[in-house]
Specification:
The chain has two domains: about 100 residues, Dihydrofolate Reductase, subunit A, CATH 3.40.430.10; about 80 residues, no CATH class. The relative contact order is 0.24. It starts with a strand and ends with a strand. The mean pLDDT is about 95. The chain contains four helices and eleven strands, in the order E-E-H-E-H-E-E-E-H-E-H-E-E-E-E. The strands form two sheets. A nine-stranded mixed β-sheet has the order 5-6-4-3-7-1-8-11-10, sandwiched between helices. Strands 2-9 form a two-stranded antiparallel sheet. The chain is globular and about 45 Å long. The protein is of the alpha/beta class. It binds NADP nicotinamide-adenine-dinucleotide phosphate.
C-alpha cells in the first residue's frame, strides 16, 4: 500500500519559510530529509522548487504549477525534464523533473512511479505552504521536525488536528552553543476513527 507523507520543518509558531527560503540553518534536518526522501517521488509547489533552485538528486522531482509554460531553470539542463502528459517511468533514471498543472496529476505521476518501482512505497510531499494545505486531508503520515523556537516568516504549515494523528516515533535534539534552540524529529500516523 502506498503512503502519502508530508515532510516539513516547522517552528513553534507554525512558520516554515520566509521570503521563499528557510528561516533557519539546520544541517541535521537537511540530512534527515535526504535520508527519508531519497529513492521516493517528491511532490512540491513551483515556489519551493525555485527556492531549492535545482532538482534534488536521487528523486523524481514532481513540480506543481498552474503555468503550463513553466520550465525548470538552467541547473536542471542535464536532468531529464518532462511534462506529466509525456511522463514514462524509466527505472534507470534516478533524478528527474516532472511538471504537473494540477495536484491530482502530480499524485497520479507519483503513484505510477511507486507502482513501477520495487523500492518506493512512500510519496513525499515536501512543501510549501500551499501544497501542504492541499494535501494534508489525504496524508497518511506526517514527518515533522519541530523546531522549539519562534521564527519570523511568511509561510506557515497548515493547521492540523492532533486527534487525527498518533505520534509513533520521536527523536529529541538539545540546543548547542551555536544553535540556542532544540528540535525534535517526530513521525505521526493517521488514526482510524472508530
Ligand atoms: N520548512 C520546510 O520544511 C519547508 C518546506 C518547503 C517549503 N518551505 C518554504 O515554503 C515557502 C513556499 O511556500 P508557498 O506556499 O509560498 O509555495 P509552494 O506551495 O511551494 O508553491 C506554490 C505554487 O504552487 C503552484 N500551485 C499551488 N496550488 C496549485 C494547484 N492546485 N494546481 C497547480 N499548481 C498549484 C502555484 O504555482 P504557479 O504560481 O507557478 O502557478 C503556486 O504559486 C518558502 O518560504 C519555502 O522556503 C519550507
Amino acid at each position: 500500500m502506498q503512503h502519502l507523507v508530508l515532510i516539513s520543518a516547522v517552528a513553534s509558531n507554525g512558520v516554515i519559510g520566509t521570503q521563499n527560503t528557510l528561516p533557519w540553518r539546520l544541517p541535521e534536518d537537511l540530512a534527515f530529509f535526504k535520508k527519508n526522501t531519497v529513492g521516493h517521488p517528491i511532490v512540491m509547489g513551483r515556489a519551493t522548487y525555485e527556492s531549492i533552485g535545482r532538482p534534488l538528486p536521487g528523486r523524481c522531482n514532481i513540480v506543481v504549477t498552474r503555468n503550463a509554460q513553466w520550465w525548470p531553470g538552467e541547473l536542471a539542463e542535464t536532468i531529464p525534464c518532462v511534462e506529466a502528459a509525456h511522463f514514462q517511468f524509466q527505472p534507470q533514471v534516478k533524478t528527474s523533473v516532472v511538471i504537473c498543472t494540477s495536484i491530482e496529476e502530480a499524485l497520479s505521476v507519483a503513484k505510477r512511479i511507486n507502482e513501477a518501482s520495487p523500492e518506493g512505497k512512500d510519496i513525499f510531499v515536501i512543501g510549501g505552504s500551499q501544497i501542504y494545505e492541499a494535501l494534508l486531508p489525504h496524508a497518511d503520515a506526517l514527518i515533522l521536525t519541530h523546531i522549539h523556537h519562534e521564527f519570523v516568516g511568511d509561510a506557515y504549515f497548515p493547521h492540523w488536528s492532533k486527534s487525527d494523528f498518533k505520534e509513533v516515533w520521536r527523536e529529541n535534539h538539545g540546543a548547542t552553543e551555536e544553535r540556542p534552540w532544540s528540535f525534535s524529529f517526530v513521525r505521526y500516523e493517521r488514526q482510524a476513527h472508530t
